[in-house]
């Protein structure tokens, strides 16, 4: 028998519970951009979970469906984005292959947003800001587009060389939180950074053998994003400094089954809402 015959080609799993988790995570992560799925997707996802349809069949049905819809209707296009990206997140989470590299991050973005954004899988070539509700309209300072590759070279090398064996559980959670915060702050793409980061991190954690609680990403995706904002925001004259406390609590729930109360309203920085006079 040759070595090639010892390999098993992966097919879609038959575990309805796990499939439900992956779908819930995909749909939940789209809520970071206030995107909601169509009823049509929910019906197709149930058929996939029950084994009636494969992922590629779901995608084909979705594409045919949206060919008949008004391409100029913003609400329909937002629904289309949610549907296709939710499907693709579920696929990627089920797929256990993984490579620890910025190339993997790029390929995740390309797969999630192909035929949605024309820049899918490409780093931005411009600088960006984004008004944040929890910052009263202020923005995180994202990495200059000219420095994206250098930042990733450094972050990924540091993480690849890092020795997890010397950490206790608390130290481990803090380290993962800081690494996640660091790659998110680069914000390498024009759109879809939080969803891409979340999928990459979950696949990375699964690859290291962690048992990820998918319910947390499903229910607390906006908290996840806002916690990353808090870990990267400073306004020193106002006495505001970056804090990892919130993203640490998220990962404690995600990986250690802790029951931290993750309240989005607690992420608002009250000093930014006070009168400056």
Please give a handful of descriptors for the protein shown.
0% strand, Fic-like fold, mainly alpha, 277 residues, 52% helix, 2 domains
- How much of the residues is beta strand, in percent? under 5%
**Count of discrete alpha- or pi-helical segments spanning 4 or more residues:** 11
Mean pLDDT: 93
What profile does the largest beta sheet have? none
Structural class: mainly alpha
Secondary-structure topology with pairs:
Elements: H1 16-29, H2 39-49, H3 55-67, H4 74-94, H5 102-113, H6 148-160, H7 169-186, H8 193-207, H9 214-219, H10 221-230, H11 245-256
What does this structure look like?
This protein has 277 residues and is mainly alpha-helical. It has 2 domains: 12-95, no CATH class; 117-277, Fic-like fold (Orthogonal Bundle). Helices cover 52% and strands 0% of the residues. It has helices at residues 16-29, 39-49, 55-67, 74-94, 102-113, 148-160, 169-186, 193-207, 214-219, 221-230, 245-256. Helix 2 (39-49) packs antiparallel against helix 3, helix 5 packs across helix 8 and helix 7 crosses helix 11. The N and C termini lie far apart (80 Å).
